[in-house]
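We close this part of the discussion by returning to an individual protein. The amino acid sequence and the backbone structure tokens for this protein are reproduced below:
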Amino acid sequence: MNQWQIGDVTITRVVEIESLGGSKFILPDATREACKPYDWMRPHFMDEEGNLLMSVHALVVDTGDRRILVDTCIGNDKERNVRSWSHLQTHFLEDLAAAGYDRESIDTVLCTHLHVDHVGWNTMLVDGQWVPTFPNARYLFARTEWEHWDANEDEKVYGPVLADSVRPVVAAGLVDLVEMDHQVCSQVCLEPTPGHTPGHVSVHIRSAGAEALITGDCMHHPVQMTRPDWCSSADVDQAQGLKTREALLQQYVDDEILIIGTHFATPTAGRIKHLEGGGYFLDVFG
């Protein structure tokens, strides 16, 4: 678990799984040989052999008045076409409660997009039925995102993701469809970062002069700061994803805003800095 204080807002990371070399099917250009020259990634984001470290985690944004859960990982008991993600049995809910956030206390669930590893704990299996995991929460989806996947669902890719993790909360009347720049509360707003998916958003937190940005999947790994041209195989529009990534890096380089990666391994957060020789890197000590 990592925790950061952004003004009066506390952001807490709750890990579902961490993996070594898990980027291969997501970032096909990020081979060991291609990654090894980027020494700045050792030891936090890459091992000595050039294997990338990645994480699947959720982030609780606690404003004092609101408890917002950003992305809900893969989930237990889900039938998935990725073998290592299928029928998981993790202690995610117990870990969330141990961090001080039992599932009934969450008032907002915010999905940056509707991919398999960002919606899984939207629901849980109870007596053979998928029911909302966070019964007292409103689930926020970007309208553009929901309309895209509602019309283009493809269970052959990852499995019945919408059927078991999205449609049940829609049917329960817990979903609010919002615009991609929606203001969640005075400290939290959405920031459009399309490309990975059409309605993909990042989450911008501002409090008492401090700022943080939860990336979602506009960047899967910090190596994409140095190599923004390394696009994800899961990007719906790689050209738009690259444009979004480059714009984000240019906007926030040498800024005090804390960048919190949705799949960045421990320590997960840092500041974007210029890299000698070109490109950028994530400074976890800056």
The two ends are 20 Å apart (CA to CA). DSSP finds eight helices and 16 strands in the chain. The longest helix spans residues 238-252.
